[in-house]
Specification:
186 residues, Immunoglobulin-like, mainly beta
Length: 186
């Protein structure tokens, strides 16, 4: 969220060009104004920032198409292409052990919706959870996570879309994003 998406093709210019984003959990597409290039070979659209989109844009796979309107002409729609909106962990996750039971707390954007498949992996330990209402905070019981003095990667997969654990792929070797790791206290 907050990035600019560029769609490439042909004949994408129009008086009004609108990007329509379809998701299986939405009854109607989400719409954003698109800006076509002068030569009609591309159109770009600004995605809303995470705070503005947190409750309205569920994580997962979207189909995006352009609706092109020109005065005196029939409205045209491009073919639909798939894009994936991955969940993003906001502050680093926290692992605590109140009463002896390990609980992983994750703050995420966009929010998790009821009915979405949610998988959390701490290192190699998988956990599946369900949510009853839209939420940006998950409290995941994490039994079996062994104490570790080195950070463990935290992966969050929502309807098949997974957070990006490695931010700098140019580093050798690539490193996990410290905002997406947790240390398991003894």
């Amino acid at each position: 969220m907050g990035d600019r998406l560029t769609l490439r093709g042909a004949l994408l210019e129009g008086d009004v060009v609108t990007a329509e984003f379809r998701h299986q959990r939405l009854a109607d597409p989400l719409e954003r104004v698109a800006t076509p290039a002068a030569d009609g070979a591309s159109a770009s659209v600004a995605l809303p920032d995470a705070a503005a989109a947190a409750a309205d844009w569920p994580a997962g796979t979207y189909g995006v198409a352009l609706r092109i309107e020109r005065a005196g002409k029939a409205t045209r729609r491009t073919n639909e292409l798939a894009i994936v909106l991955a969940p993003r962990l906001k502050p680093p996750p926290a692992l605590a052990a109140p009463g002896g039971q390990r609980i992983l707390t994750i703050n995420v954007a966009p929010q998790i919706w009821p009915g979405q498949r949610v998988d959390v992996l701490v290192g190699d330990n998988p956990f599946q959870i369900a949510v009853a209402a839209k939420t940006g905070t998950l409290a995941v019981p994490a039994p079996g996570v062994a104490p570790s003095d080195t950070p463990l990667p935290v992966r969050l997969r929502v309807d098949g879309a997974e957070n990006n654990l490695v931010r700098d792929r140019m580093a050798q070797p690539p490193q996990f994003d410290p905002q997406q790791t947790v240390t398991a206290p003894p």
